[in-house]
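Usage

Read records sequentially. Each one opens with the input sequence:
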Amino acid sequence: MRCVVATANPDKAAEIVAIMGEAIDLHLLARPLGVPDVEETGETLLENARLKAWALFEATGDLTIADDTGLLVDALNGAPGVRSARFAGENASYQDNVARLLKDMTGKRNREARFETVAIAILPGGQEVIATGTVYGVITTSERGDRGFGYDPVFEPLESDGLTFAQMTAVEKSEISHRGRAFRELAALIAQAVS
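and closes with the structure output:
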């Protein structure tokens, strides 16, 4: 079955394809170039994931998967949250967002945080299937590692033996990551729905 990956972020798309490719037999397709970026106007991760999924489903008619992910930092009252990709501004780079986070965390004793992913599939008949994934950890005081993307160099999962996501291989990261958990669950729900 054909399945369109809705994200326009190539790093995220590669991660999703790797996770889904191991979990379910789908012919995963990149987001069509002619489909414009979806404005993420939702106030929750689910709302943004849904906006992206439906836009691509309506454009292609194929099974579509999308997600939205947020980093929620306790000392920042849950920020950056739904604005994680735009924390340092609308066109912020990964480095801009990490620098802003580390600056905002200066002097904070409580460094607890969590990543949350909401993944959604729109099946060919228009049925929605939704899964979530969460990983708890802490924000480091400096960047460590050069793998991954986004906030990976400053997020140390509690299950990681002291490594940040950016110090792990892609396989190690996906085993415990929010996105890995969400998309493995989504794959199982899709398989159940189409069987």
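Summary fields computed downstream for this record:
- The beta strands are 2-5, 27-29, 63-73, 80-81, 112-122, 128-139, 155-157.
- The longest helix spans residues 178-194.
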